[in-house]
């Protein structure tokens, strides 16, 4: 994988202020920038961290190339090179949850307007960068990128006029909801960012135990 070319980047942002839901005692990582990139820019690291030993094709998602999908990558500006973390927001409802869920009906509706719903998927931090707050930083950047698209009407829906946004997602458009099938080993991280568990534990074959988690208004 090569460093993302400028033509692949839709947005960039230098290190923001510490998120509202920061890890206790955590510090905003320095020298980081998050970038909106193409699907091809996230696949290698996504595969390396989440599907080790498998070909890159195993890490591709059906909606990766959907124009409403947002991919972001974190890079260290002090040591430019390959992304050190990646994440994706898909315009996908939780239509067929693998286990009963106790969450807002908006997450379960196949016809939910795109600006109101996102599935977090493919969040991966390189082993060398873990434990530095990079995941928190990138998740905040992804939320800001999605909020900006919703505000601009870029997803084909009406904008929710929520005013200026913060990178922790606290000022996302009021009707925006997020959900994810989170690995049980990552539940503590997402809980500290304000997400909550809404399902029993279930197994994804070849990957391991997961739970459904959500983040949204309220």
Walkthrough of the structure:
By secondary structure, the chain is α+β, with helices and mostly antiparallel strands. Helices cover 17% and strands 24% of the residues. The protein has three helices and nine strands, in the order ββαβββαβαβββ. Strands 1, 2, 3, 4, 5, 6, 7, 8 and 9 form a nine-stranded mixed beta sheet that branches. It is globular. The termini are far apart.
Tags for this entry?
globular, 9 strands, single chain, 17% helix, nine-stranded mixed beta sheet, alpha+beta, 218 residues
**Poorly predicted parts:** 1-26, 157-174
Oligomer: single chain
SS element count, helices:
3
Average pLDDT value? 77
Number of strands: 9
Cα shape: globular
Instruction: State the helical fraction.
Output: 10-25%
What's the Cα radius of gyration? 16 Å
Q: Decide which structural class fits the backbone.
A: alpha+beta
Give the termini distance in whole angstroms: 40 Å
**Roughly what fraction of the amino acids lie in strands?**
15-25%
